[in-house]
Amino acid sequence: MSSIELTNLTKRFGDLVAVNNMDLEIKDKEFVALLGPSGCGKTTTMNMIAGIELPSDGHVSFDGNDITNTPMGKRGVGFVFQNYAIFIHMTVYKNLAFGLEVSGTPRGEIDQKVDDMAKLMRLTRQLDWPAERLSVNELQRLAIGRSAIVRPNIFLLDEPLSNLDAAFRAEMRTELKHLQHELEQTMVYVTHDQLEAMSMADRIAIMDMGILQQYGSPIDVYNRPENSFVARFIGAPSMNLLDGRIVGTNGSTKLDFGDIGNLTPDGNDPLAQACQNAQNSNVLFGVRPEDLKIQPSGSSDQVLSVKVTFIELIGPRSIIHVEGGGHQLKVVSDNQETIEIGTPVGIAPTGRTHLFDADSGQRVE
Amino acid sequence: MMAGNRISFEVMRYTFIIAALAIFLIPIVWMTTLAFKPVAEWTTAISEITWLPKNPTLGNFEFIFTGQTDELIITMPNTATMPIIASLVIASLGTLIAVVVGTLGAYGVSRFQVGNNLPLSVLQLRLFPPMAVMIPVMMMWSYLALVDTFWGLSLIYGIVTLPFSFWLMKTFFDEVPREIEEAALVEGCSQWRVFYRVTLPMVKAPLATTVLFVFILNWSDYVIALLLTRKDWVTIPVYMNSLNSAMTGEMYGSKAAIGLIAAIPPVVLGIIIQKHLVRGLTFGALKQ
After folding, report:
1. Phi and psi of A328, rounded to 5°?
2. B201 to A50: CB separation less than 8 angstroms, yes or no
3. N or C terminus: fewer CB in 10 A for chain A?
4. ipTM, 2 decimals?
5. Closest Cβ opposite residue A163 in set B198, B282, B287
6. How far apart are CA A10 and CA A252, in angstroms?
């Protein structure tokens, strides 16, 4: 059993507030990703959970016990550093055995556990090598193995895959998830890569400027972003956010985008309700590039008129960049029809759309 | 054609290396040959330069270790045995003091942000030549009955070379990534154990360099030893200076003999830790 609870957690470095009044609750055996851009406070949050940094305010609890002032060595957490922090003056074996030796485990048991972990991490052949001879990929596995071997109830990983090449990163994503199931640990994973967070985590905590923006399942944060930051940060290519204004005419409301046209939401569309609630205000209209479709120019009144400016090929699909009336948008197309740069086209939303307040950035429903 | 160029380049390269070596090694070769020359070959009694001893002799060594030799009519009351022991003991102890205190101090300053201006105050010890404060030090040492004792001289050596060991080690500790230590601390390691199991082994090579550097400084000191020793704990450089007499003037042969002996410990120490010196700093655990 190892749940983690952060209450009003705040960390200040002089004038800089790295983490601001953060509340987060992580369940036992849950895999939570702390996601955000560089400098958003995710690593600081992680360091406070591990005890490497002490919070300026607030509390950290494990299983309901306040451990805010417990020294890091007594918290029973495993920590994998972004830069691995391998003891290069020791052999691979010594690195793996380190935590067990510190806790005074009998020699025979250490040998057994090191062998098992080496097998799991595919380091058996390298056991007697000095750690400095390992490749980056092997260092990575060693760093994870060294922390995992003591079977900590809570496993913290700080961007462990950021130095790896793309192919190995994909492989490690699967393996980490697998490892977490096997070791039955509570895992907290810091990353700035939304794909890593989306593919591995049970829940994602998205942070920006020291503030927790949204906490929910990957599907949740993807389908229902709480604010425009989350909307922009989750998903690749990122969500289109258009400046618009909601105007009411003859009992119906429409979203006015200036020169490129306007949209009148269908009565059954949740967007219609949202528009009703935000009458006569400036909004950000969000729609994912996958949820837009290119149509012939002027084909219906639900079409925004734009011009194609650039086409990016991404395998079987392409990202069509379009522009009009000062707005720039991306549309994902399945390459069914040929489109040329410079052609005037129409675009229409075909799937889920989102509405955010233009000033606060908060979701409007 | 290409091969020809290559060969002429190699020939030039080696010619240059040998020429440079010859220039650097002349003083050492001269001292070595001098140590084995009989008195007639290093006094002005003969008006020619002899490069290699014509009549090689161990007389110079005999003289400094026994106080007399058949070749010289004078005798020496003080032999070289005690100064050699004194130099070994004092330089080693001084090095030990400077390196242990410097390393621990540097670790504290580097890791725990303690000491505020301490690093600069330590450096201040080197801002003026030791001679500038040696008279007050002489008075203090004499008051504390430390003059002409091995611990008295070791202590001042430790103090005078402390800035070197402190600053060198501080620079090296600063380069050891904090995460390495945090990784060990998270595993439940005590801070002290982190220091000697993780950090210290990582700076083994720089530590060896520091030891050699400080030892050579202590080993070759003349002025401080001259002021703080009388007869019991006279060190090699001071003893060397005493090798003259009214009758023969400067006894260059004997000086060369003790000089040759004095060159041995730094060379041996250098060879022992050469592996570390060459290896230098490799903090490859981190992908920067």
Report:
1. -120, 130
2. no
3. N
4. 0.76
5. B287
6. 46
A84 and B285: CB-CB below 8 Å? yes
Domain shared by B182 and B237, yes or no: yes
Q: What is the CATH number of domain A240-357?
A: 2.40.50.140
Cβ-count burial of A326 within 10 angstroms (0-12 exposed, 13-18 middle, 19+ buried)? exposed
CA dihedral A149, A152, A153, A154 (to 10 degrees): -110
Number of A/B CB contacts below 8 angstroms equals: 80
B191 touches chain A (CB under 8 A): no
**pLDDT attached to residue A211:** 92
Residues of A in contact with B285 (CB under 8 A): 83-88, 131-132, 139
Amino acid at A224: R
- Regarding pTM above 0.90, the answer is no
Instruction: Name the more confident of B76 and A354.
Output: A354
Instruction: Specify whether B100 is located in the same domain as B237.
Output: yes
Q: Which residues of chain A are within 8 Å of residue B179 when distances are taken between CB atoms?
A: 81-83, 85
C-alpha angle A252/A253/A259, rounded to 5°? 125
Numbered residues of chain A with Cβ closer than 8 Å to any chain B Cβ? 50-52, 72-75, 77-79, 81-90, 98-99, 102-103, 131-132, 136, 139, 146-147, 150, 163
Task: Tell me if A163 sits within 8 A of A136, measured CB to CB.
Answer: yes
| Maximum average pLDDT range among A62-76, A331-345, B98-112, B246-260 | B98-112
Q: Which two tokens stand for residue B286?
A: 């981190």
Strands (DSSP E) contained in chain A are: 4-13, 16-26, 31-35, 57-62, 65-66, 77-80, 154-158, 186-191, 203-208, 211-216, 240-249, 252-256, 262-263, 282-287, 292-295, 304-314, 317-324, 327-333, 344-349, 353-357
Chain B residues touching residue A147 (CB < 8 angstroms): 186-187
Domain limits at B111?
A: 81-242
Please name the residues between 148 and 187 in chain B that touch chain A, using a CB distance below 8 Å.
177, 179-180, 182-187
Q: What is the pLDDT of residues B145-193, one digit of tens each?
A: 999 999 999 999 999 999 999 998 998 898 888 888 988 998 888 889 8
In this structure, the answer to whether residues B46 and B146 fall within a common structural domain is: no
How many separate domains does chain B show? 2
B1-32 per-position pLDDT tens digit = 556 788 889 999 999 999 999 999 999 999 99
Binned at pLDDT 50, 70 and 90, residue B285 comes out as very low
**Is the CATH number 3.90.105.10 carried by domain A4-86+134-233?**
no
> Please, are residues A266 and A253 in contact by the beta-carbon 8 Å criterion?
no
CB contact under 8 A, B186 and A103: no
Hey, what amino acid is at A45? Answer: T
**Sequence ranges of the domains in chain A:** 4-86+134-233, 240-357
Distance of alpha carbon A255 from alpha carbon A358, whole angstroms: 13
Tell me which chain A residue has its CA closest to the CA of residue B284.
A132
Strand order in the sheet with A262-263: A262-263, A252-256, A240-249, A282-287, A353-357
Mutate to test the interface with B, among A47, A48, A75, A88 (most CBs of B within 10 A): A88
Cα(A147)–Cα(B131) distance, integer angstroms: 55
